[in-house]
Design goal:
The chain is mainly alpha-helical. It folds into two domains: 95 residues, Glutaredoxin (3-Layer(aba) Sandwich), CATH 3.40.30; 115 residues, Glutathione S-transferase Yfyf (Class Pi), Chain A, domain 2 (Up-down Bundle). It contains nine helices and three strands. It has a three-stranded antiparallel β-sheet, with helices on one face. Helix 1 runs antiparallel to helix 6, helix 1 packs antiparallel against helix 8 and helix 4 packs antiparallel against helix 5. The protein is globular, with a radius of gyration of 18 Å. The protein binds glutathione. The site of glutathione has 11 residues, from helix 1 and helix 3.
Length: 247
């Protein structure tokens, strides 16, 4: 029995869901996990992150690791290439999504959250925001030189690179726009064309629709103040798990 712990709004989870949809792995449960996680969830998974792939009581963390694991155990239909060189290219593009887009965007999001929450604004935060948003613009330009021009990230078909890039681009774009920062994608014609075309692929359209649903839900949670309470509950459960003696 396999189950993916996943949130609609989590771009890392969306990457694995898009792969599951593209491969037609309908036996893997992908329904939305409640936002509040239990202390046991954190105790069982030292990395304490979503997504987590549950396999008969065991769990695999990290979206890239889950993606490679699924390709190994379900090689067909393949979202990898047919040569080591093709695989290296797919993994390079996926890594741009992971390291240069997602890591930077998550750090930027946490900084702007701090900015919004505090008065007076802590010194130095504005320059960190300028630095990280500049890095995002530069990474999108890099991607613009490498991305496929035929509606796919590479190889003219859906691969793990698309599964990593579709959620990463959508996350970066919405996160920056939400915070009143400029959208870096419009100025990069190849990335913009890729983004418009890949949305026509059913697995991509599905995760983007789930993002939309997640954003609506998040807006509601923010307006009712529920989000802060849920974040605090997760933090308390995580800290309790971290304090518990290791087995
Ligand atoms: N490097 C991890 C990052 C996963 C991650 O940060 N997930 C977020 C949701 S998108 C999360 O679990 N946040 C909850 C928390 O940090 O407590 C991956 O690729 O899976």
């Amino acid at each position: 029995m396999m189950k993916l712990y996943s949130w609609d709004l989590s771009p890392y989870s969306a990457r694995v869901r898009m792969q599951i949809y593209a491969k037609g792995l309908t036996h893997i449960a992908t329904e939305q996990t409640p936002f509040i996680l239990t202390r046991k969830f954190y105790e069982d998974r030292p990395l304490s992150r979503i997504p987590s792939l549950e396999i008969d009581g065991d769990a695999i963390s990290e979206s890239a690791v889950i993606a490679e694991y699924l390709e190994e155990i379900y090689p067909e239909p393949s979202l990898l290439g047919s040569t080591p060189r093709e695989n290296a290219h797919i993994r390079t593009l996926a890594r741009i999504g992971d390291v240069y887009l997602m890591n930077t965007a998550f750090t930027l999001a946490s900084q702007t959250r701090t900015l919004a929450a505090q008065t007076p604004v802590p010194t130095g935060i504005e320059s960190i925001v300028a630095l990280l948003s500049g890095q995002l613009v530069s990474s999108i330009r890099t991607l613009d030189r490498m991305i496929g021009r035929d509606g796919f990230a590479c190889l003219g078909r859906l691969t793990l690179a698309d599964c990593a890039l579709v959620p990463a681009l959508s996350y970066v774009q919405h996160m920056l726009l939400n915070r009143g920062l400029a959208d870096p994608i419009g100025a990069s014609a190849n990335v913009a064309a890729y983004q418009a075309a890949i949305e026509g692929q059913e697995p991509a359209a599905r995760v983007l629709a789930e993002f939309h649903r997640g954003r609506e839900e998040r807006r509601e949670q923010i307006s009712t103040g529920e989000l802060e309470k849920m974040r605090a509950a997760n933090q308390a459960a995580r800290e309790a798990a971290e304090r518990a003696p290791s087995a």
